[in-house]
TrEMBL record:
InterPro entries: Glyco_hydro/deAcase_b/a-brl, NODB_dom
PROSITE patterns, A to Z: NODB (PS51677)
Protein name: Peptidoglycan/xylan/chitin deacetylase (PgdA/CDA1 family)
Gene Ontology terms, MF aspect: hydrolase activity, acting on carbon-nitrogen (but not peptide) bonds
Sequence ranges assigned to domain NodB homology in this UniProt record: 75-301
Annotated signal sequence range: none
One record GO biological process: carbohydrate metabolic process
Entry-linked Pfam families: Polysacc_deac_1 (PF01522)
Organism: Streptomyces spectabilis
Length: 315
């Protein structure tokens, strides 16, 4: 199907500029997965009768200086250097990561690390800390300064190979999961990633349960742009107490739905050390985890284990 669009522009003095030539906008159906209403699926059961599988997606990233990226103040993001925003992001690796790690340790939470491959050689202490804790490692692009898009198939195959092999070399574990920088991928990504041993992706935040993509052997595991510290704290200016209440409400609602339907749900929480790792937010993450991890219906796990358990059950 094609949609056609043209726009006119008005210039000063009320004169109308000539209409631009007709532009064709191609409307594509998403062939990566099929529609499946959650009310029509086979029941999904988690270990020990738990109802909600909870995991933390901890984004551990490297940002190149001189390239605009996630910013707390957009007014300087195009400058080189941009000390305000680049320093804010660097706080994550230098301080915020370690504060967040201590909070996870207190609650026995293993992180599912969304790892830029450049992190391994630049911040080896972070990798060592994660290895000591048996964290899960997912491929998350090379850096977070460039989106994973606009690549030819050969370019993408080479890029993915470098990312996956670098993560395996630095962490000692070959990643099974993928999430692109900024949740970006091409229509070829699931197929090309599967060639390298990737068997699930997080980019499509379309569900509360894992589901199979139309690329055989590749799953989509739930991730979140709603319960995401960048969106909540930076974009929406959510308060700490409201953050805690949102997480409580989320787990309570998912638990109630899972209990009513005898079918489990997934609750991801997306965190970035330069956001959640700020000192004044630490106690709110602590309070939220105290509630979630001790909820009798929650299985605290990793995205790797969620994918594996779902695959075993459905096969």
């Amino acid at each position: 199907m094609e949609a056609r669009k043209r726009e006119g522009n008005t210039a000063g003095g009320g004169h109308r500029r000539p209409l631009e030539p007709l532009q064709r906008v191609i409307v594509m159906d998403n062939k990566l997965y099929d529609y499946s209403p959650i009310v029509e699926r086979e029941p999904l059961h988690w270990p020990e009768g738990k109802r909600v599988a909870f995991y933390i997606g901890l984004n551990v990233e490297h940002f190149e200086i001189g390239k605009p990226s996630t910013s707390i103040y957009p007014g300087t993001m195009e400058l080189t250097p941009d000390p305000l925003n680049h320093g804010w992001r660097d706080y994550g690796a230098r301080v915020g990561f370690w504060r967040t790690m201590e909070t996870l340790d207190r609650h026995g939470v293993r992180a599912s690390v969304l790892l830029n491959s450049d992190v391994g050689d630049r911040y080896p202490q972070i990798i060592e800390a994660g290895r000591e804790r048996n964290w899960a490692w997912l491929a998350h692009g090379k850096t977070n300064s460039d989106l994973h898009t606009g690549l030819t198939e050969d370019e993408e195959r080479a890029a993915l190979k470098d990312i996956v092999e670098t993560i395996e070399r630095t962490t000692g574990t070959r990643p099974r999961g993928w999430m692109g920088p900024g949740l970006t991928q091409t229509f070829n990504t699931p197929r090309l990633a599967k060639e390298l041993g990737i068997d699930y992706v997080l980019d499509w935040t379309a569900d509360d349960q894992p589901f199979a993509l139309n690329e055989p052997g590749v799953l989509s595991v739930p991730y979140t742009v709603e319960l995401n510290d960048i969106g909540l704290f930076v974009s929406k200016h959510t308060s700490g107490p409201d953050f805690v209440q949102m997480l409580k409400d989320q787990v309570d609602q998912l638990y109630a739905e899972a209990e009513a339907t005898d079918s489990g749900r997934v609750m991801p929480l997306a965190l970035h050390p330069f956001v959640i790792g700020q000192a004044f937010r630490a106690k709110y993450l602590d309070q939220a985890l105290e509630y979630i991890v001790n909820h009798p219906g929650v299985w605290t796990t990793t995205s790797d284990e969620i994918a594996e358990h779902f695959r075993t059950q459905r096969n």
